[in-house]
Specification:
- The protein is α/β, with parallel strands linked by helices.
- It has helices at 3-12, 32-44, 64-75, 94-107, 122-133, 149-155, 172-184, 197-202, 217-228, 232-249, 257-267, 287-295; strands at residues 16-19, 49-52, 81-85, 112-115, 137-142, 161-167, 188-191, 207-210.
- Strands 1-2-3-4-5-6-7-8 form an eight-stranded parallel barrel, surrounded by six helices.
- Helix 6 links the parallel strand 5 and strand 6 (161-167).
């Protein structure tokens, strides 16, 4: 394991990374002032670090100049920053695009990259990114493209891989397997399980990188804090609150969770209504917005 991956693994152990959204208008325009205030607010409210341009941040859809500007604003906050790379289809750049994104992330001071799962040779893709940028990597076991166990074992032996984030939503056995394999390989087991958050900590996850912390950060931070303590009732209460919020935001259509978290961020005053849009997700009925607000405590039950 490369020393840089070891350093990242150890730095992230026990932390909560907010998988930040990218606030934008209905047409997809990004206001960097809004982004700066939003990211700073996540840190002020309890996020130990930031994951930008990942699945929640719609990184694969954003132009290189916008991506660079978002990274710069995250790095300026002085917390660990992980940048999502890859995720585009083969015809739009594939591995070569992920390599360039990783080089930019490294140049701008990011601590690591979260590698979107890709079709084909996943290990080869990670190796290409490692050779191109030399920046520590977090592998990504995502519900839209779960990682086969043998491939996961290979990834967790790669010297540049510091850990793996699992975000399988409802596959408890898959989550448990990823956590076990990561720990056996001496890598960091990172939960991205918004719908199995408390259980994934009990199964051995050592850090969190979740879209649920794109708003209402204290709800997620409270579970992490209670888990580190010895009060089982406090952990149960904190987990119950998180589960109620996740039930309203991480539900079918699942890709709508980004819009729901942006609605919640707007309800909390983190972002203006004009920038609470996800043009890349499915359309959602307006009545869902009220349900999300109630779950977040912003409307009467």
């Amino acid at each position: 394991m490369d020393i840089s991956a070891q350093v990242l693994r150890d730095r992230l152990r026990g932390t909560l990374l907010a998988a930040a959204a990218t606030p934008m208008t209905e047409s997809g325009e990004v206001d960097l002032g809004v982004v700066s205030r939003y990211l700073a607010g996540l840190v002020e409210d309890g996020a130990d670090g930031l994951a930008v341009l990942a699945h929640t941040g719609r990184g694969p859809y954003l132009a290189p100049d916008v991506r660079a500007a978002v990274i710069e604003r995250a790095v300026a906050l002085g917390v660990p920053v992980i940048v999502g790379v890859g995720g585009s289809s083969a015809h739009s750049g594939g591995v070569a695009q992920a390599e360039e994104q990783a080089r930019v992330a490294a140049r701008l001071g990011a601590d690591g990259v979260l590698v979107f799962p890709a079709e084909g040779d996943r290990l080869g893709g990670h190796e290409a990114i490692w050779r191109a940028a030399g920046i520590p990597m977090i592998a990504f076991d995502l519900y839209t493209r779960p990682c086969p166990p043998e491939t996961m074992r290979d990834l967790l032996r790669h010297p540049g891989v510091a850990g793996i984030k699992t975000a399988l939503l409802s596959d408890a056995m898959g989550c448990q397997r990823a956590i076990t394999l990561a720990r056996e390989a001496g890598r960091l087991a990172i939960t991205g399980e918004d719908r199995m958050f408390g259980p994934s900590l009990l199964w051995g996850a050592e850090a969190a990188l979740v879209g649920l912390a794109a708003a209402s950060v204290p709800v997620t931070a409270a579970v992490m804090a209670a888990y580190r303590g010895s009060d089982l009732r406090a952990f149960d209460a904190a987990s119950g609150r998180l589960d109620r919020l996740a039930t309203a935001t991480f539900t079918e259509p699942m890709e709508g969770y980004v819009q729901r978290m942006l609605w919640l961020a707007a309800a909390e005053g983190r972002i203006p209504e004009s920038h609470a849009h996800d043009p890349y997700g499915p359309p959602l009925p307006e009545q869902e917005r009220a349900a999300v607000a109630r779950a977040g405590g912003y409307l009467a039950k």
